[in-house]
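Q: Sequence in, structure out?
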Amino acid sequence: MQRQATISLRLELYREVTAIVEFEYGDELALDDLAHRVASSRRQLQRAFAEVGHTTFRQYLTAVRMDRAAEMLAGSDLTVREVAHNVGYRQPAQFAKAFRRRHDLAPSDFRARARIFGSPGSDSVPIATAA
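A: Exactly. Output:
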């Protein structure tokens, strides 16, 4: 059984890092850099994501990026390439593959569907948050 101090520390680390990701999702984000920014270790952040968020840092970052991309595709006239760049992808093909994994549609198909049905983001799964 974990000590309460350990649980509290991991919850706080998770909250700090997820707040950074929510704000800076379009930038290049690396776990080591974020660990340094929140005065922690890579391993502690990995544990925080596993125990508090029930995910990994990479999965969380990808989920945030894909959900923001869905919002941009549904609510703007940005090209798929521009959306990919805005959410941190340099290669549109990698972006499209990640988007399909998350939303079960190609980005252009998602945009067309959102415009027809007028429900941006309805296909997205909510991002895990701490209780």
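The two ends are 19 Å apart (CA to CA).
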